[in-house]
Amino acid sequence: MANILICDDDKEIVEAIEIYLLQEGYQIYKAYDGEQAIEVLKQEDIQLLIIDIMMPKLDGIHATLKIREYSSIPIIILSAKSEDADKILGLNIGADDYVTKPFNPLELVARVKSHLRRYTSLGNLNTENNALFVVGGLCMNDDTKEVTVDGEAVRLTPIEYNILLLLVKNQGRVFSINQIYESIWNEDAIGADNTVAVHIRHIREKIEINPKEPRYLKVVWGVGYKIEKQ
Could you give the CA distance from residue 141 to residue 214 in angstroms, rounded to a whole number? Predict the structure, then answer.
């Protein structure tokens, strides 16, 4: 069973989460600030991290940023409703999900299970299956043409799928509108701007939590679009 690290400066919250996860058979590790969480991650084989945003010494946002420098484990952020901006920032820098306080423990357990399934069944297969492409919580299986974001299925049109696949296969590379159009439509890009822009907007609406602050599909102003490396 998976090893899970719970990090929150409120020990009662940590203990409450621990009770529910122990019932599912998980091995639990605990930390009470970001620095402690990073130390545990360095010493133990952790498969998932649950971390609060507001903590002393090192908060959840900066801890997530440091962890993403060397680890791709699923990270679930705990946040109060007043911390929406920090919550979105956390997702943009690499967290996989968030749960708003006060939360239903059963919902948190369900999210933990979902992310662990994705991490073990998709993330670890990425080096073995050439048809599987994983970028953070975004997964594309080019054999089955299935797309999921944080374990949830996403329905794309064939054109949207092909655009996203082009960018995901070449994550980090910027494609101009003309390059996207010519690659997908296989014809000269005459008047392609609006056509590509509309499809990009639709893709963002389907794969991004906040399309106005995209985590995956980024615009490089004056140049084109890219899938951010994660």
Answer: 22
Q: Strand 27-31 and strand 3-7: pairing?
A: parallel
Q: Is 11 exposed, middle or buried (CB count within 10 Å of its CB: 0-12, 13-18, 19+)?
A: exposed
**What number of CA atoms fall less than 13 Å from residue 104's CA on the CB side?**
4
Check whether residue 76 and residue 142 sit in a common domain: no
Find all residues with CB under 8 Å of 59, minimum gap 6, and list them: 34, 53
Three-state DSSP class for residue 183? helix
Shared domain for 192 and 214, answered yes or no, is yes
Residues 20 and 114 in one domain: yes
170: Cα separation from own chain's centroid? 18
Instruction: Report, as ranges of residue numbers, the positions in the chain whose pLDDT lies below 50.
Output: 122-128
CA dihedral over 21, 22, 23, 25, signed as positive or negative: positive
**Co-location of 45 and 77 in the same domain:** yes
199 with 222, same domain: the answer is yes
- Rounded-to-integer distance, Cα 111 and Cα 95, Å: 13
107 and 139 in one domain? no
**Phi-psi category of 169—alpha, beta or left, where left has phi over 0 and alpha has psi -120 to 50?**
alpha
> For 158, what's the count of Cα atoms within 13 Å in the CB-facing half-sphere?
2
- Domain span including residue 136: 132-227
Structure confidence by residue, pLDDT tens digits, 81-109: 666 677 677 777 778 788 888 889 998 99
